[in-house]
Design a protein that fits this description.
This protein is α/β, with parallel strands linked by helices. The chain is built from 9 helices and 8 strands. Strand 6, helix 6 and strand 7 form a beta-alpha-beta unit. The longest helix is centred in the C-terminal third of the chain and has 19 residues.
Length: 287
């Protein structure tokens, strides 16, 4: 389906689309479009592959045991934002759910670059790379969805998956759909709302700062120019955070509507660097 055809399908369905669950500072993201990256390679460049391989637990020599990875015993939940077929089922994803501070849509389609590379495809790719790195370091990793060809789950279910796993840390991977002039990444952390997230607000802040610092250093991304303070933003309207009983943050990896950020997102080598930066930040927190 072309980008124009997808937008038309959304219009016919009456689907209301917002990047990552709602308006940001009064600006609602524009309609998402479904598509995969034009670049043929999903595998990272050799230099990134070599770097990631270096983080893995080394193979044992004859007669020697395998050393424990630095994250052995830790449980991490990764939430790849949205899902590839959300746009086909507006009645399902538009169903309202309770996020304690308000009622919101079960999920959204997410946004897309001008060339049609969808946020759902981007978040799925980065999450797969992140999971591989964390597993190589010894962590037990759980994802909130198993592929990019389904629907949902609802934001309430995404939080419940992390809670059930009793995760030591959880992260939701996203990319923003803000006005094209803005660029750069930011990390979203929860506020106290008199709800289940309150006991882990402080830990979530620590996790968010560690991820922010590492992503800037490893992936070379600038701080967001349009939201947050030094790439840190605090919100009380996201069900994935409000309902979490484990330390959790969102990362908006950049602005898909900005040409510079969009070009980076389409690069497998960049997506690998981003995954590595997130992994390093989570490892700093988990230590």
């Amino acid at each position: 389906m072309t980008s124009k055809a997808f937008v038309a399908a959304l219009a016919l369905s009456g689907l209301s689309v917002a990047a990552c669950g709602g308006a940001v500072n009064g600006t609602t993201a524009d309609p998402a479009r479904h598509g995969e990256p034009a670049s043929p390679a999903a595998s990272p460049a050799a230099s990134q592959a070599t770097r990631v391989a270096a983080t893995a637990t080394p193979a044992p020599s004859a007669g020697r045991s395998v050393p424990a990875g630095p994250l052995r015993g830790k449980v991490v939940v990764i939430d790849p934002g949205h899902n590839g077929l959300n746009y086909r089922y507006p009645s399902k994803i538009n169903k309202l759910v309770d996020v304690l501070t308000q009622r919101k849509a079960c999920d959204t389609t997410g946004t897309a670059t001008d060339s049609g590379y969808s946020e759902a495809a981007f978040t799925w790719d980065v999450s797969q790379r992140l999971a591989k790195i964390l597993k190589a370091r010894g962590a037990t990793v759980k994802l909130t969805r198993t592929d990019n060809s389904g629907v949902g789950p609802c934001i309430t279910q995404r939080a419940a998956i992390g809670n059930k796993a009793k995760a030591d840390a959880a992260i939701s991977i996203h990319a923003d759909g803000a006005p094209a002039a803005g660029h750069g990444f930011h990390v979203i952390m929860p506020k106290k709302i008199g709800g289940p997230v309150d006991p882990v607000v402080g830990q979530s802040r620590e996790l968010g700062i560690d991820v922010r610092d590492s992503v800037k250093s490893v992936a070379g991304l600038p701080y967001s120019t349009y939201i947050g303070n030094k790439a840190l933003d605090f919100r009380d309207d996201l069900g994935g955070l409000n309902l979490s009983t484990v330390p959790k943050v969102f990362i908006e990896s950049g602005n898909m509507r900005n040409p510079g950020d969009a070009a980076k997102f389409r690069s497998p080598a960049f997506r690998q660097k981003l995954a590595l930066g997130i992994a390093d930040g989570m490892q700093t927190y988990l230590k």
